[in-house]
Amino acid sequence: MSMQQQIQDKLSSAIACKHLNVINESHMHSAGTESHFKVIVVSEEFVGKRLLQRHRQINEVLKDELANHIHALAIHTYTPDEFAEQGGEAPDSPDCLGGSKLN
Predict the structure, then answer these.
(1) Is residue 80 a contact partner of residue 18, using CB atoms and an 8 Å limit?
(2) What are phi and psi of 94, to 5 degrees?
(3) Which of 3, 12, 77, 100 is deepest in the core (most CB within 10 A)?
(4) Which letter, b or e, does each residue of 29-50 get, where b requires 16 or more Cβ atoms within 10 Å of its Cβ?
(5) What digits encode the pLDDT tens for the residues 7-21?
(6) What pLDDT, in 10s, does the model give residues 45-71?
(7) Regarding beta strands 36-43 and 72-78, do their DSSP bridges make them parallel or antiparallel, or are they unpaired?
(8) Which helix (H) or strand (E) holds 36?
(9) pTM for the full model?
(10) 8 with 22: CB under 8 angstroms?
(11) Of residues 40, 35, 27, the one with CA closest to residue 4
């Protein structure tokens, strides 16, 4: 199973998502590895929770992957109303500034 699918499965099992998108952004950073991801999670569970609490929830679900496989994870968490206010979109990830990127 790909790391992208593993992340998708774990998040969808742990959180009642109205919308879930797991994007593999590894091609923007490293050649040949699945190590950079962006997750967009929309859930009623986030109502009344601060951004830090939402991110901690995602980090807890993915703690093994973060400790052993994922180098970078961009987390975008929204309530359904917040996601609608964003036009159903999350911000684009910035271009890679170097690091492990192979040219």
Answers:
(1) yes
(2) -70, 160
(3) 77
(4) bbeeebbbbbbbbbbebbeeee
(5) 999 999 999 999 999
(6) 999 999 999 999 999 999 999 999 898
(7) parallel
(8) strand 36-43
(9) 0.86
(10) yes
(11) 35
